[in-house]
Amino acid sequence: MIPRRLITIGSRGSLLALRQTQQVAGQLALLYPQYHFAVKRIKTRGDKAEHLTLSQLKGKGLFVKELEIALLGGDIDLAVHSLKDLPLQLSPGLEVAAISQREDTRDVLVSRGDKPLADLTEGALLGTSSPRRIAQIKAFRSDLVIGDIRGNIETRLNKVSRGEFDGVILAACGLLRLGWEDRISQYLSGDICLPQVGQGALAIEVRQEDEEIKQIVLPLDHRPTRQATTAERALLHFLGGGCHIPIAALGQVCDNTLKLTGVVGSLSGEKLLRAELDGDVATPEKVGILLAQKLIAQGAREILAEATRC
Prior knowledge:
Blueprint: E1 5-11, H1 15-31, E2 35-41, H2 45-48, H3 65-72, E3 78-82, E4 94-99, E5 107-111, E6 125-127, H4 131-140, E7 145-147, H5 153-161, E8 167-171, H6 172-178, E9 186-188, E10 202-207, H7 211-217, H8 223-239, E11 247-254, E12 257-265, E13 272-280, H9 284-298, H10 300-309
Parallel strand pairs: 1-2, 1-3, 6-7, 6-8
Antiparallel strand pairs: 3-10, 4-10, 5-8, 5-9, 11-12, 12-13
Helix pairs in contact: 1-6, 8-9
């Protein structure tokens, strides 16, 4: 028997990251039984510094850089990332060959007593390290106290169970992929908390010159998700933001129309700008830039400058 060629997939070491990568490996194994797909764990700088807040960690690509180094060095053949963690500018020599069909894009609340956001007591302590979430949650409930929280999903859930927090805000996709949807107290609508750019989608990163691997992963590329997230990332890039800035966006594709919604907010929640735009799915970057310009006309630059100084 001729041995199957080994293809190594790089992943962060968290339970969620491994689950996501194993799902990709399983999909590829069904498509290509002639290959053997193995997952290799790689610890990133963001994982090694869980004791620090995201605002204390400097630089881009906190959760992807080490994976990119392994990819460029040939230690792995492809890398699976949460698209929301992927920098707007990739390392030279790399590209995103596939963006998976999106899971639920919403944020969720996990709370003590299974209470929805509106029913939390005044002054309740809510855990999140995301400026995007802070701005929107404070706009909805200015009386809540926001506490910075780091760690993987299990760590955050345990802090609620132990009473350290009255609740935490998490991405629905993570809990759903882990099969922990029973822990969700409330799915937050986009009117309350619009998601992070790219939330719910997985990005498969490869070496640009590796045509074989690009062709192997191509069937996993979901065109509507790529169009929607391309618009979101174009908006974020034009506004000059990243995951540490209070910017949210959600693209939705229906037939030939791409509807993009964007939010820019102050960390206090006192200023919250929202805008929408319908555009052509064939030009997602243009849709993102046009909506960014619309937000800038409303005063987004001033709000973002203030948030950057905080």
